Amino acid sequence: MRYLKLYFTYAKLSLMSKLSYKSNTIIGIIAFLFTEITSILTLFLIVSQVPSLDGWNMYEIGLLYGITNLAIGLDHLFTDKLWSVAYFEVRNGTMDSFFLRPLPVLFQTIACEIQLEAFGEILTAIFMIIFCSMNLNLVISFGNVLLLVVGIIGASLLITSFKIIIAGLAFVFKRTGAYLQIVYNFAMYSKYPLNIFPRIIRFIFSFIIPLGLCIYYPVSNILNPSLNPYLLSILIIAITAIMLCLSIFIWTKCAKRYESTGS
Amino acid sequence: MPLIEVKNLSKTFKKPIRGNGLGSMIKTLFSRKYQDIEAVKGISFNIEQGEIVGYIGANGAGKSTTIKMMCGILFPSEGEVLINQKSVLKHRKEINQEIGVVFGQKTQLWWDIPLIETFKILKSVYRVSDEDFEERFNYLCDLLDLKSFMNQNVRSLSLGQRMRADFAASLIHNPKILYLDEPTIGLDVLVKDKIRKAIKELNRHYNTTVILTTHDMKDIEELCSRIIIIDKGKILYDGNLESIKYQFGNIKNIVFPFFEGFKEERIKLFCEKITIEKLENNIKLSFSLNDVDLDALLLILIGEYKINDFKIFDIGIEEITKELYAQNEETK
Amino acid sequence: MLKMKKLNNKLAKYTPFFRAGMKSALAYKAQMYGWIFIGTIEILFIFFLYQAIYRNAPEGMNSVINGFTFQEMILYVATATIFASAISSETSWNIYVEVRDGTIVNTLTKPVSYRLRHLFTCFGQVFFQVIFVALPLLAILYIVFISCGFVHFEPLMFAVNVLFFLCFLLVAILINDALGYMMGMLTFYTQHMFGLNMFMNAIRSFLSGAAVPLSYMGFAGVIFSYLPFAFLSSTPILVLMGKIDIYGALTYLSLALGYILISEIANHFLFNHCIKKIVVQGG
């Protein structure tokens, strides 16, 4: 409860400082918006060459893409600071003040920044979801919607967990930004229908970076029910919880090794 | 029982060796060599509640490294720091409640928002009760004169204002220990004075323990009852200020511009124990008042050489450490 | 002869910047390995995506979609990724840092042209990227594709294509740097370089045909192929792949030279305009 209250205080301050650089924030949002629009256009141009891609039509692919992007955008909105931890905050020793306050360092790292640029992703994602849903016959049931919501939040937290682990390793190895970039870029390809990929990639997205499990299967289910939504929801929650605990554990262990700069 | 115990603390940094030429840069594409730099080499000391300790040494002597290990933001290579007999690394959150830190070159204030917001959030971070906050906030505001810029954005504050605000922010939770790393660096005389007064007043009012690093001899003279001198990662001196001043206070320097006709032999003839150094266009004489009669020397300089442009000053901290270091080597 | 010597002397004072550019490219080598790895993953996934597309096309894996066979498509995408990393320069970022830190004032007081200074820094950086990274990778790529018989190959034609490609490589470097310089000038007005860069990258990657060949875009693609962006990816690659004939290549080359001339003139006036802003601000 105390942490929730503190989180809102931190978030308020973050928003206040963002608003003092209004034009930067707007440029940031537009930048992400444009990046998304061009990549959606690219996908559209490629996919529209064929009537269906291994059983997925254009709207279905668009829905999958939008929902994945929503999860990505949510993570981006709340935990963007982890990028700078992995890239330069540890190396430059600029996290001193986090280590001098009587609060968990991870809490402060996440709470200190709300990244409004993420709205570039979130807005295009919501547009894609609405637009594609209107052109599809979705099997809407309580179970399926629940599964979808659990899946989106789960995927978002999974991305966060991977970011926490790799950023946390920076406390030991000083700079892990490039590795984070590799894993993140790899994870981005879970936007495409898993069944177009070879078995090894499908395996990775189902079990190692289980983003496919959180999004691909729930979206398949809302298009063409074949799985028990409640069972799958529980599985997603369990896996997400395990990953999150693991990531916090690794971060806490590594953070003990933090070194500020010498001078 | 001491409040702070520093036990056999060491820190070694790994630094990559970089070449300058293009060729050696291409070489580092494939392999990289590291060099060990020992910043702090096994130092130990204790500090009692209510002391004001000056921690001094030349640039790169290992001052900041030690302070940072004492705060728990730098992982030591060896040894440990205990506060209230608890390791600063293992009980970080608990210890942080007891310490306040000001780094002269880095601010801990929220940069883009009004100053008052920093105090509000620190109140909830440190769980300061409303009454305590009220009392301390008003006290610090009066002491450091913060009222006039409380609602300004931190980034628009002047360096002096920002330092005072940083100072107040580190004290809002009534810490037992205050670490100050070069708190007066780059400030003008008036602000320096204000900060010194505040440190003294705070120590008197709340019995706060203060550990400060500084290059400013005046900081030390006005504040510290005890000084620890460090050089090349080792403690050279740990004791009260009076005795070291007695030891070195008699040393004077005279500096004047070089001129035609100046002869070293003449000075040496007067007294052999005067060291003569040439610094660009100046001549510097250093000597102890135990050996030299200052009046007689000045008579030579003014009377014989007609020098009317010279400065006399006391030995600085850099020279004291140099002297101490030389003495240490001799006794070995 | 004398004139040549004078020019030589004039250019000689820019060699330190060339070296500095090369050094900065070397300093980022760790990141470079990272980007090569990321690029490889990216190409791999695009390979799978196009594989699925051709698999689902009416004539299967032997289909020709928008003028590309499956093998040609993969070659195009791989070349585009390598090409983009070869020509990328830090000019806009360097200008941003100079404006932000105020060090631009120091560089303005020196008797060197601001534009040429940045151009030579860019040359240094790009020289390293092209010689040590891009050309070896491209060589491997084309040896593999040609020896496996994935693409049509005639030695003489290919040699001509390579020659033209090298000309277009130079063109791409010049246009890219001119664009970067223009972006750098924008930092006199806004401080958000990360966003500007990202925005620019999105537009550039789409309009240049790096993300998907311009032939996928129908009539719009035809228009885009005459914009300066096309020279940053589409045109050079199509020339190398032999999809543009000699006549077409010459036409594009003259168009590109026109663009370079216009953009440098524009940059000259833009700089004179922006520099007044510094004077007005008093540093």
What does this structure look like?
The complex is a heterotrimer of chains A (263), B (332) and C (283). Chain A contains 12 helices and no strands. Chain A is mainly α and 263 residues long. In chain A, helix 2 packs parallel to helix 7 and helix 3 packs antiparallel against helix 7. The longest helix of chain A is centred in the middle third of the chain and has 32 residues. Chain A is globular, with a radius of gyration of 19 Å. The model of chain A has no long low-confidence stretch (mean pLDDT 92). Chain B folds into 2 domains: 182 residues, P-loop containing nucleotide triphosphate hydrolases (Rossmann fold), CATH 3.40.50.300; 65 residues, Alpha-Beta Plaits (2-Layer Sandwich). Chain B has a 6-stranded mixed sheet, sandwiched between helices. In chain B, strands 2-1-4-5 form a 4-stranded antiparallel sheet, with helices on one face. In chain B, strands 12-13-11-14 form a 4-stranded antiparallel sheet, with no helix packed on it. The longest helix of chain B is centred in the middle third of the chain and has 18 residues. In chain C, helix 4 packs antiparallel against helix 7 and helix 8 packs antiparallel against helix 11. Chain C has one domain. The longest helix of chain C is centred in the last third of the chain and has 36 residues.
Features:
heterotrimer; A: 263 residues; mainly alpha; 12 helices; globular; C: 283 residues; 0% strand
Major beta-sheet overview of chain B? 6 strands, mixed
Strand content bin of chain B: 25-35%
CATH homologous group name of the largest domain in chain B: P-loop containing nucleotide triphosphate hydrolases
Low-confidence stretches of chain A: none
* Head-to-tail CA distance between termini of chain A: 38 Å
Radius of gyration of chain A: 19 Å
Number of helical elements of chain A? 12
Class of secondary structure makeup of chain B: alpha/beta
Instruction: Assign an overall shape of chain B.
Output: globular
Class by SSE composition of chain A: mainly alpha
- List low-confidence stretches of chain B: none
Q: Examine the secondary-structure arrangement and name the CATH architecture of the largest domain in chain B.
A: 3-Layer(aba) Sandwich
- The CATH topology annotation of the largest domain in chain B reads as Rossmann fold
Q: Please give the share of residues in helix of chain B.
A: 25-40%
- Give the chain pair forming the largest contact, with residue counts: A-C, 37 and 37 residues
Oligomer: heterotrimer
**What is the residue-averaged pLDDT of chain B?**
85
Number of strands of chain B: 14
Sheet bearing the most strands of chain A, described?
Answer: none
Q: Which descriptor suits the 3D outline of chain A?
A: globular
User: What series of H and E elements makes up the topology of chain A?
Assistant: HHHHHHHHHHHH
